[in-house]
Amino acid sequence: MEERSVKPDTLVVVWSSGDREVATKMAFLYTLNAKRRDWWKHVTLIVWGPSAKLLTEDSELQGRIEEMREAGVGLKACKACSDSYGVSEILEKLGIEVQYMGEPFTQILKDEYQRVITF
After folding, report:
1. Residue 6, CB half-sphere, CA atoms under 13 Å: how many?
2. 3-state class of 54 per DSSP?
3. How far apart are CA 99 and CA 24, in angstroms?
4. For residues 23 and 88, what is the distance between their CA atoms, to the nearest angstrom?
5. What is the C-alpha to C-alpha distance for residues 93 and 37, in angstroms, rounded to an integer?
6. What residue ranges do the domains of the chain occupy?
7. What does the alpha-carbon distance between residue 83 and residue 72 come to, in Å, rounded to a whole number?
């Protein structure tokens, strides 16, 4: 019996750094290009930890998030994290789906059709 290789078609980018330069020079740059240039069929950015607070304080980063949303990048944020910073409502207003991420992220890690990178 011939084995077929399965190629993942989904990229999940976990952005957890509170460092603005990590966002602009790495996480956002790669995430947006991965979607716009069709490097991956599906691209999702998860805002997790200190990045949630940084995003709500930086209008330029918010504009970049809007670019990603318009390009078709899925946008999610960890509710436990954003609640701890008191920013869940602000993230929702930015068009980000805020939800508890522990269980969904575990499923993402177990799915052979998805790849995860973190910044």
Report:
1. 7
2. helix
3. 24
4. 19
5. 27
6. 12-118
7. 26
Q: Which CATH number fits domain 12-118: 3.30.460.10, 3.30.710.10, 3.40.1260.10, 3.30.200.20?
A: 3.40.1260.10
| Helix (H) or strand (E) run with residue 83 in it | helix 79-85
For tokens 């994290």, the residue is: 81
Element (H, E) at 10: strand 10-15
The tokens for 33 are: 């290009």
Residue 106's SS3 state is helix
pLDDT at 5 (0 to 100): 62
Task: List pLDDT tens digits, range 50-102.
Answer: 999 999 999 999 999 999 999 999 999 999 999 999 999 999 999 999 999 99
Q: Are 10 and 63 in contact (CB under 8 A)?
A: no
Rounded to an integer, what distance in angstroms lies between the CA atom of residue 59 and that of residue 39? 28
Q: pTM of whole model > 0.90?
A: yes
